[in-house]
Amino acid sequence: MPLRGVLFDMDDTLFDHNYSTDQALAALRVEESTFAVWPPHELRERHSAMLETLHAEVLSFRLSIAEAREERFRRLFTDAADAPPPPGRALQLADVYRLSYRASWRPVAGAIDLLKDLRAANLSIAIVTNNLVAEQTEKLRACRMDPLVDALITSEEIGVQKPDPQIFRETLTRLGLQPDEAVMVGDAWRADIVGALAADIRPVWFNWRGTPTPDAKVDEIRSLEPLARAASVIRGRSHIPLHSNS
Q: Model confidence at 238, in pLDDT bands (50, 70, 90)?
């Protein structure tokens, strides 16, 4: 069947979460000297692990997003200082992080041109994300990608998370597509690639980290630029070598 729609992950596929996180953690280190006990890469690793743990609590409705943000920095401070933060300090740190994170929001390089190109080819575009509706809607608007997206499908709304195939099938239903009429593009192997395969959708791995592939049969791109190559791989027409500059 001809390609009729493209499904995208959001964070670190279209939205540059990695960049915004780095900017916010740099602001955090300036604000709170306690975090100097760790080199920047270790703070990044610890923060990422804590974010993942507490994000799961938000998606399962055990914590509100505000509670999770405060708890993240309470735990990080406690780990760094070997003592809990002073009253109100965790909330202050959460605010510092959030303000810097939001101020640095931007699309992944090449994302807007790619979306425009796919839309010009009359392909439907959907976001499939393990996140909250309000958060991802705000990012799309801030990055001016919302006019280029036909549907936003979140785990909050559907009640299951990638890689559960149900969230992919719901997306296909909303776009009026069959699995063999769509492709899924994402950076997270388990959530995006394994999930797409379970839903019988062809995946394209956005491997911007350059990590070894678990399955060489899966199409791969390492950048959304140059546009011609990224669009060609997504459409399933590329025979260009992975590292080509053409």
A: low
